[in-house]
Amino acid sequence: MDPIRALIVDDEGQFVEAIVERLQLRGFDADGVTNGQEAVEMLSHRPPYDVVLLDVKMPGLGGLGVIKQIKEKWPRLQVVLLTGHGSEQDAEEGMQLGAFKYVMKPVNIESLIGILRAASEHDEDDA
Questions:
Q1: Cis before residue 106, ω within 30 degrees of 0?
Q2: What does the buried/exposed string (b/e) look like for 37-49 if buried means 16 or more CB atoms within 10 Å of the residue's CB?
Q3: Is the pTM for the entire model greater than 0.85?
Q4: CATH of residue 10
């Protein structure tokens, strides 16, 4: 079975490094970037990802803008939104845009891994 390919997108570089490292230790093929534009570029130029963990609040192209682009270009790609200071409105909008789940920081790594695994196995055609 191939490892789950995950892209981690958050403007906090140390957080990205820590999550990528923890995912890799658990058998994921994980990459990380620190802004929305980099995320779109990575998605365009790398082999397909199974799931994206996406921070909502980032300078420049924020998470909601990124998920809009993802769902236009790669509609089957699953996105888990993550925020440390989100709102009900952000959560609702993110879910309407097609997010698999909305998670608040801090998040337990084991819970996050379970969510990312579930998202990677989710098929829009099954919904």
A1: yes
A2: ebbbebbeeeeeb
A3: yes
A4: 3.40.50.2300
